[in-house]
Amino acid sequence: MIKIRDLNFALAPGFGLSVPRLDIPQGRVFAIIGPNGAGKTTLLNVLALFQESGAGSLEIMGKDAYDPRNKLFLRRSMSFVFSQPYLLNDTVYRNVALPLKLRGEPDEGRVAEMLELFKISAFKDRNANTLSQGERHRVTLARAFVTKPGLVLLDEPFSSLDARIKDTIMHDLRVIFKAAGTTVVLVTQDQGEALTLCDSMAVMKAGRILQHGSPQDIFARPASAEVADFVGVETILPGSVTGKEDNLCSVSAGGKTLEVIAGCAVGDSVLVCVRPEDVTVSKNPDAGSMRNHFGARIISVDPWRLEYKVGLDCGFSLMAAVTKQSVEGMGLKPGMAVFASFKATAAHLIKR
Amino acid sequence: MEFIVSGFQKGIALIFSGNAEVYAIARLSLLVSMFATVISVLIGVPLGALIAVKKFPSKKIVISLVNTGMGLPPVVVGLLVMLFLSRSGPLSFLEWLYTPMGMVLAQVIIATPVITGLSMSAMQSIDPKFYRQILTLGAGEWQALAVCLKEIKLSVLAAVIAGFGSVISEVGAVMIVGGNIRSQTRVLTTATVLQTQMGNYDMAIALGLILIGLTFIINLALTFIQQQKAQAYNAK
Fold first, then answer.
1. What CATH number is associated with residue A69?
2. Contacts of A102 in chain B (CB under 8 A)
3. Residue B200 sits in a domain of what CATH number?
4. HEC per residue, A34-94
5. pLDDT tens column, A199-255
6. Structural domain count of chain B
7. Hey, are the CB atoms on B130 and A86 less than 8 Å from each other?
């Protein structure tokens, strides 16, 4: 569906887009995540044919996307949804029907089908600009799918929605994506969106793809400290592998020995990555089944989403995510002595 | 003071007297200015929209030129058009000097920058992403411009009103290019100047009142359409 080879754009002094190779197969939902200024939207604009041709090659649906003769055909084979809903000052029905009108194609019930699919049939005769933000987003999505496009590009489409509406729309979209078999490229800064909607994803920074693969793989096994940092790994410790038995590596880090299941060799310099949600805090000195168990002092206790983030000093800094009930039940507060543990499978090693 | 009142009385009487010459002058004024406005709209609206949405190296210079054009002195335009259309000028083959077509040409040059500039400003008020959004829905470039212009139709209509206003009331250019020839190129503004110079104040006032009246009626019609659209916009 999309083939990128040696794509290079110099966009501004000190900033360019460089993608040596990227393939997005037909029917996949692909997320591009990364911090602000990573080049995510620029890459999406390249796919939407908004950028002038750069070095390398870009093939979409088997056509050379740099060839101006293919521009209108490709534009009419894809849809683009911006983070803000850009709608005509007209009825919902006419907004959804616009892509068909521009192509000179008959409606044949497709608009009604989309209105039904995106649950906006009740508003079809209302002016789109009088709708709520969530409803307006549904109109833009219905409009994007009305032509049954081969490719849909979504540029942070949920960023201006509140959590409840976002969850509802994402739930509906997941079903629609699967049913339509459309290739979707989603740009987002929200890892939750990527995990919920996508089959595969790429992490970008400074115009480059740092890692791509399945969301589960990237979140569990980030390939670099930058990716680890972006996908929410808060403990990243430099260390070295001092021993290995089967796949169980002993890693010397922060003055302690950690045990991690990994494919590294003795002597490797590594970064040990531990996600906060994989760390358990207790007052119990018994390690149980945990391979890594350390006495620790609490440095900080801060609210985080619906939980708390507890900063720990175990000789090295470790961050744990703890439920509100546990924080209150154990009376966790800074200065308190506790035990911190995590499994050997919960940690991940990045070779340096 | 008395001669002013008397002038108005005679002028109003003249309007309703069925004076064929007065009506012919009014008709020519309307035809020339409306024709010039239509041509200016056909050039200025898409040109203004295109300048607004396109990226090109000398865009700021082009915008400055358009803005300068909005304040072109009509007398200078008239002089240049006259020189171009004169026997030794590069457009002499058109044989438009001292004809209504020459006057239309001069008025097009005056009105086009006004309509272009105001359409450009209106188009620039649209978020550039809106234009891109229309392109991504499968529109060709002209289709996308048309959709965007429809969204700013109230502002475009304001540009049309301003363009028409700039030419119906203009005297210098049509005087030079048309020559103010009786029954051929005499329009309301040039006739008013002539009658004033001749001391026929009642005739001058009559022509002036017709000019104001016609301008008012045309603008009233355009404003009516504009405000109807505005009401429809707000009611949606």
1. 3.40.50.300
2. 134, 137-140, 143, 147
3. 1.10.3720.10
4. CCCCCCHHHHHHHHCCCCCCCEEEEEECCEECCCHHHHHHHHCCEEEECCCCCCCCCEHHH
5. 899 999 989 999 999 998 898 899 999 999 888 898 999 999 999 998 899 999 988
6. 1
7. yes
